[in-house]
Amino acid sequence: MEAQWMSELKPSSGASGTSNRLLQAKGLRKAQEIAREEKATELFLRAAQEEQNGAVYEAIKFYRMAMQLVPDIEFKINYSRPPDADRGGGNYMEDSDADGEIEDLLAYFEQQLSVEGSFPKICTPEVEMTQVHISALPREILMYIFRWVVSSDLDMRALEQLSLVCRGFYICARDPEIWRLACLRVWGRKCTKLVPFTSWREMFLQRPRVRFDGVYISKTSYIRQGEESLDGFYRAWHHVEYYRYLRFFPDGHVIMLTTPEEPLSVVPRLRTRNTRMDSVLLGHFRLSQETGNQTKVFAVVCKKKDEKATDFQRNRFCRRNPAPEAEHSFHVGLALSSGGHQSFSKLVWIHHSCHITYKLTGETVITTFDLDRMYTPFFFARVKSYTAFSEQPL
Q1: Region labeled Disordered — which residues (predicted)?
Q2: Phi and psi (nearest 5°) for 91?
Q3: Residue 333 — pLDDT band, cuts 50, 70, 90?
């Protein structure tokens, strides 16, 4: 009986040991799965952060590592919780100043979008719609629309107004590529480096430049003595008043006009270079920034050629009308500064000369004008109609 009892105890003891080992193995696998999921979550969130920062190659690497650990990690992440502090994202509300304003609004909005879902939309409709909402468009299409808003006229003011629509539009309006293209359009090869600026937007807003969304106007007035009357009893005095207009274009062209007509009638006709005003001068300009941090504008303008007169002179029956023997061009130098509350709104004369080139001899005669009180500064006036229409994107 004792031997039988001992034989019955042995198998039960073996079964108990096996059960304990199975429980231990199951607990170990569970712990490994939890550790693997936590590591995959960390890698996936880091990949999302790299993708937002524009480092696509690094993001793909971390996405691949996360999915190798947990293939469906994308659907296991709880996006409703705030990001961990050790991820380096931080809480932007805690970093705000005494007034409660968010210091880095762009990073804060990007952080909010990243915690809303695996595929966050740029914006969401405020009310239910039966038609397709603009949020359904890919980001690439939205950025192309934003480039049309800026247009070739560099209407960055409209871009800033568009950023007030929602946080998604704010993020798109701060896209570095748009501001980089705008800087290249203004300064060309002279803006290959950001230093000392921290972003392309900061460069465009703070670096001295001429403005394209309006016209620079200079008003000159003086009193001139007239002729004596026939009886010599009195002499008339005349109050003379005239205006100079400067209109700059992003492609380097400039229009200059001197006329007694007031801005109300002249400004609308300076919207494009194809103006029909006979006294207008057309030319090119360039910006020059010297060591003293003084930005200057140099322009060369001349009277536009009359195409009809040129065709008329080519007629073999009109040989008695010879071509003009000399060409006149005017060289203008201006110092750029800020006046009042507007940036880069004042241009002060530093040079004005007339170059006459004789076609027969090729000789050029230069006449430099004295910059007296008749050369009053130009002041900028914004014109909304200049940027009301877009002819081509940025």
Answers
A1: 1-21
A2: -105, 115
A3: very high
Q: Read off the DSSP letter of residue 293.
A: S
CA–CA distance, 322 with 311 (Å, rounded to integer): 13
Query: What backbone phi and psi angles, to 5 degrees, belong to 147?
Result: -70, -30
Q: For the residues of 216-238, what is the DSSP string, one character each?
A: EEEEEEEEEEEEEPTTSS-EEEE
Residue 219: name the closest of 383, 373, 335 by CA. Answer: 373
How confident is the model at residue 84, as a pLDDT? 42
pLDDT at position 306 is 62
The span from the CA of 50 to the CA of 46, in Å, is 6
* Cα dihedral 3, 6, 7, 8 sign: positive
- Residue 117, pLDDT score: 54
CA dist., res. 263 & res. 47, Å (int): 57
Distance CA 159, CA 224 (A): 48
Beta carbons of 250 and 187 less than 8 angstroms apart: no
Which 8-state DSSP code applies to residue 50? H
What confidence tens digit (pLDDT) does each residue in 64-97 have? 888 878 877 777 776 544 444 334 343 333 333 4
More confident residue, 324 or 171: 171
Q: Token pair of 219, please? A: 């008003």
Q: Any residues with CB less than 8 A from the CB of 219 and at least 6 apart, and which?
A: 241, 242, 243, 376
Q: Using CA atoms, how far apart are residues 243 and 266, in angstroms rounded to an integer?
A: 10
Residue 261 to residues 49, 68, 256, 277, 375, Cα–Cα distance (Å): 58, 75, 14, 12, 18
